[in-house]
Give the backbone structure.
Amino acid sequence: MLYTNLKHIESAAQHANVLKENENVMVICGRMGPMCIPVYGIAEELESTYPNVAFFDMEFDNPEAHVIRNLPEVRGFMGIPFTIYYKNGKVVKATSSIQSKAQVTAILDEQFGK
Amino acid sequence: MNKKYDVVVLGAGPAGLTAGIYLSRARQKTLILSDGPVGGQMILTHEIANYPGVESISGYQLANIMKKQAQSFGCEIIANASIQKMELMPLNKSFVLDDGTRIESDAVILATGGRSRTLGVPGEAQFKGRGISYCATCDGDFFTDKEIVVVGGGNSALDEAVSLTKYASKVTIVHMLDAFQASQHAIEEAVNHPKIDIRMETVITAFHGEESLQSVDLKQLKTGETEVFKTDGVFIFIGYVPNTEGFDCCLDLNERQEIVVRTDLSTNVPGVFSAGDNIDKLYRQVTTAVGDGTVAALTAIRYLTEQKK
């Protein structure tokens, strides 16, 4: 259970719906661990700054998270969280492990605009 | 936009949050300003079992309780702030944020904490999260049945090396000195572990790989010999550095770049105080940071009272 203030994705079907219904999506797939919590916090704070982006998290150990864990873009990733940025249902960027606010905003600006 | 506070606390770890609690409760208009998340290094701890009065709690939960406590007394908190400019002068203490907001205060408490030290060698940034990790409990399971390296010689390095043997088929500890700095118990556990090899007086000089880490360059410091060492992962535990960049303009720092403070946690600049992991001290614990935050806040309150006389 991820006790963040982000909206949670709990199934592969919900993941598919989120991508279908939103043009720009950021999904943080992790645990309640030291490298993940700061990224959830950054996303929570950026939600109001980027109304054009739908922010979600997904529990890494949820079997349904195979939709993230098996993405070709995360091959070689060995650090949680896996943070995936989607535009029109396609992965446009993926990062592994902890990221700073500056790194996250740089990706959001580049991929989705403010 | 201009804002004025009695005290700005820079940093939202246990020292900063405690200072915020004490200051706000004493009816000082207080802002906690942090360039990172609320909780600081504390949220990197899965379980805190030595915080008096609380049998066991995660760092994340404890940070959130402290945050709520500070806010309940009226303390304002801005996390993940981007500070563009800072003045820490006797008569001018101000901060400018990236949105142009200018914040002034009569006193400042620097509780900026520390961060994990990195090796700073080629490839480290490229392979972070792709074989290089700074958290065994987070990423250990990615290395099941793999051969890994642990860098460091303190308690964290040796404890985590032993804990990583739950996953890895082999762990090689690489340490630059000729002796470990860890406790005797931690040393014995690591040295006697059948899955652990040890390379003393050795450093990593580069990381190599493609999609993920595949090897490191090792250099034996005594002989100067180098070798390409195949490994699937590297965990780095080489201590912390204080977050004091930019403070050398006006504050006294020691050779480790820690802020030099008096026993009341005042610095050489009137009205500027410091608390927590960024000061010159021996022990760095949540409990010591909380104590520092208390002392710095009480000293700041005394300073503000004297200024108003």
User: Anything to note?
Assistant: The two ends of chain B are 30 Å apart (CA to CA). Chain B has two domains: 2-116+240-308, 132-236. Residues 156 and 237 of chain B are 6 Å apart (CA to CA). The helical segments of chain B are 14-25, 59-72, 136-139, 155-164, 184-191, 286-308.
